[in-house]
UniProtKB/TrEMBL annotation:
Protein name: VacJ family lipoprotein
Coiled-coil ranges (or none): none
Keyword Lipoprotein: yes
UniProt keyword terms in alphabetical order: Lipoprotein, Signal
InterPro entries: MlaA
UniProt keyword annotation of Transferase present: no
Highest taxon of source: Bacteria
Pfam families xrefs: MlaA (PF04333)
Family under the similarity heading: Belongs to the MlaA family.
Signal peptide stretch: 1-22
């Protein structure tokens, strides 16, 4: 799946590029929960993503997609793409010991694929089967004790941690394994536009933050622990977590 492979390539490039760079004196790496050895580079990339790429490209394109695409078409596409992730989420939940959720993912996949026109219609939800959030292989890794690794702000993409390179495993399961490069790019782009457009009403949270970079980093790292179902020593403000729940999951 191209989005996962792209993460690995970009992460490797970032490590090479920033490996010899100095760490700024004002970075908050004294917090043991923060692993941000490339903060100087990351802040530059954050400014590029947030100040230029998002307002001049990602945001307007996303809003145009939502405004001009008929709702039945958009919902059908979203259902279809979500259905593709059900098998990998099932396996990752099994690895995390979530048997009930794994069964729900399994039932949702075969029901929607069979009776929901390959997932275009969410028949499973109508039948009362809970729709859980996607679980990636990196979530299973984190749940089983693998650390997040360094935090990296990828230009044109958004925040990631090195552990997410393991998500390439998800692309090995059918039906994701059947997607070619362009289909994978299309899936990532369509899901990202839906996510970005849905968060316009919550932009003030980020704009009112005294340090948007630190705010983003803290929310993203805590979100990674949340999806991996790892207990953290600090509590997350619910409004902040709601905002970055999907926004930082997809990146810019």
């Amino acid at each position: 799946m191209i989005s996962r492979l792209t993460r690995i390539v970009l992460l490797s490039l970032m490590v090479v590029i920033t490996g010899c760079s100095s760490v700024p004196d004002d970075q908050s790496t004294s917090d043991p929960q923060v692993n941000d050895p490339f903060e100087g580079f990351n802040r530059t990339m954050w400014a590029f993503n947030y100040d230029y790429l998002d307002p001049y490209f990602v945001r307007p394109v996303s809003l145009a997609y939502v405004e001009y695409t008929p709702d039945p078409v958009r919902h059908g596409i979203a259902n279809f793409l979500s259905n593709l992730d059900e098998p990998s989420s099932m396996i990752n939940n099994l690895l995390m010991g979530n048997g009930k959720k794994a069964l729900d993912h399994f039932n949702r996949f075969w029901i929607n694929s069979t009776f929901g026109l390959l997932g275009l219609i969410d028949i499973a939800s109508e039948a009362g089967i809970t729709k859980h959030g996607e679980k990636a292989f990196s979530d299973a890794m984190g749940h089983n004790g693998v650390g997040k690794g360094p935090y990296v702000m990828v230009p044109g993409y958004g925040p990631v941690v090195v552990r997410e390179a393991g998500d390439v495993v998800d692309g090995l399961y059918a039906p994701l394994s059947y997607l070619n490069i362009w289909a994978s790019v299309g899936k990532w782009a369509l899901e990202g536009m839906e996510t970005r457009a849905a968060l316009v009403s919550q932009e003030a949270l980020l704009e009112n933050s005294p340090d948007s970079y630190s705010f983003t980093r803290a929310a993203y790292l805590q979100r990674r622990d949340f999806t991996a179902e790892v207990e953290t020593p600090t509590e997350v403000d619910n409004s902040e977590e709601d905002y970055f729940d999907s926004y930082m999951e997809e990146g810019f």
